[in-house]
Design a protein that fits this description.
single chain; 105 residues; mainly alpha
Length: 105
């Protein structure tokens, strides 16, 4: 089930390397050539965080209808996730602030 997800992360990782100037754009042709590259290339996968689709526009003609229980469960779950990430982000911010103030020799 995760094949496509991992495939996209691998492709994006190579695209990031090209954008950073660490690979040449021609590497894509080489990687897609089975004769030149018969095995999976050894690149790290890109982070999954910015690769999540969370918003789409279907125009004004489509009206979504949600079941009440499902809708409430989703709201609760997203609020829980938001609270967890907010706590983590606050902790990380505090750690960075303290590191900025630390005496370094």
């Amino acid at each position: 089930q995760a094949f496509l997800w991992h495939q996209i992360r691998c492709i994006v990782a190579v695209l990031f390397l090209i954008a950073q100037g660490k690979e040449e754009p021609e590497i894509l042709d080489d990687l897609l050539n089975v004769e030149k590259c018969p095995r999976k290339p050894q690149y790290s996968m890109a982070s999954e965080l910015p690769l999540c689709l969370f918003d789409c526009d279907f125009g004004d003609d489509l009206e979504w209808v949600y079941e009440a229980d499902w809708h409430e469960d989703n709201i609760r779950h997203l609020q829980y996730m938001w609270a967890q990430h907010t706590v983590r982000a606050t902790m990380l911010k505090k750690m960075l602030e303290e590191l900025d103030q630390a005496k370094v020799e």
